[in-house]
Model the fold of this input.
Amino acid sequence: MVTEDAEIYLPDMHIGENRRDAAPGVRGFLFQDLLAVEELIKEETEYVCSEYIEDVCAVTNNGVRIIQAKYTPKTNLDIEAITRELYYQYIKLRQYGYSGDIIPVLSFHADVATKPDEEIAKQYLNLSEGHRRFQGTAAEIKLKVKECIQTGIKKERENNLFASFYELEDLRDFLRVYKMEEVGESISSYRKALGEKLDTLIKIDCCPVEDTDNRQDLLIALATKLVQDRYNEPDQPADNQELLKHRKVIREDFFAALGQALAFEQSFNFVIQSFVDEAYCELVDEQLSPDNHKRLNRLYVSTNEWVKNNLDRPCGVVQLLNTVSTDSKVPSESDRAQNLRNTLYICKDRIITFYHQIWKIKLNLRQETFEECLLPGIGEYIAFSFQNHKDWSRRSIIMSSIGDSPRRKIQNVQKRVRAWNERPQKWYLRSADTRGFGDYSIDVARIAPEELDVASISPDRFVVECMECIGIDEGEWAKNENCADSIFSKKCKYGGKS
Done:
């Protein structure tokens, strides 16, 4: 079969390719990983390799799709550079002797891209007049290709290869099969659509995740993880053949792994990590500054790492639920795992809002890790202290959104918090017009607006910070807020309402 031939040639194709240069999951790479999942969904795909030849390489039963991924909303694509890079890969594989179909693909979410015609493509190649194509035996051609691609910087390597092996008929063949495939959806919508497709392909009896939306979210999170796990390559792979074996995601194995994973109850931290992924996907199109885009990427990665390392046991789940829930009770550590897992799904939107709130605060403070300002040793809830950033409170809880019936929900939370050993002095609770003092020593959760000067706050008193100063809705992430003059201040700029 042609696929056997493809595997023979692919190791040589990796010569001169760069290693993956960013953490899995950040914007462009998450798009790339979703493209790999989409290729695996296609029946004709036998396996995919990411970051081996270009961004994604999909091998079918009669050819190879070489895919470059570009997720650059509202930014023009460098079609010249992309076309050169894909033609470079096309020529390499042809000159190595591969006889199957080679389909170069630009998959993009960006401003409109137009495929170059023959004359423009020739200009892109920057060929000098009177160049002569290299002639030789198959073995000599292979050696010449390797010589071209191992000398100089990337553009020089491309020029070396074009000068040695350009032929007009090859360029015409390349342009005939060159595809530009636009993904018009945002990453968040694209991710959701792929989850729906996976759900139609995987059918198991007695799936523990009965809710359709939750199951689809879990499936795409599992699928993405199966692709991303392949980036954890051996420290010193013996050769490109070994690296190819490690990077390959075989379609048959991929769907078997998804079905098996879905049939069993997922670990807590994986469910929570899928929420982190969704929270991040909602923000990738926000118009952040370049520095804050980098910070958000790092916050996303570090949050996933923290979840992975800290929330895989019932005590960690209860800690998170205590932080975000507005119910009077949350499950205990002794509850069944399925009950804890179901409650996580019920609180999913609140958990996502929690991530958005802490990320926005940290962007305002120019922080890049989830653990910075996190208070260790408090197991009842996720506690933070921003005293080093002019917050008057020594111990705070960053919650979610109060929604409807704020008084009832604040009373629910207060009943739980009163029993904690180290109660928070401040609640960062997105609560519109509910702000001011509360008292742990009484049952009634009356939030009083009087004198928001908290210099002499007693141990039984706490303050609800309404978070009106911190924007987390769509279109509000470009603004940097001054936390010291707003949510950390002893005076609320909005005053107080009961």
User: Anything to note?
Assistant: The chain has 17 helices and eleven strands. Residues 21-25, 452-456 have pLDDT under 50 and may be disordered. The chain has two domains: 1-193, 288-485.
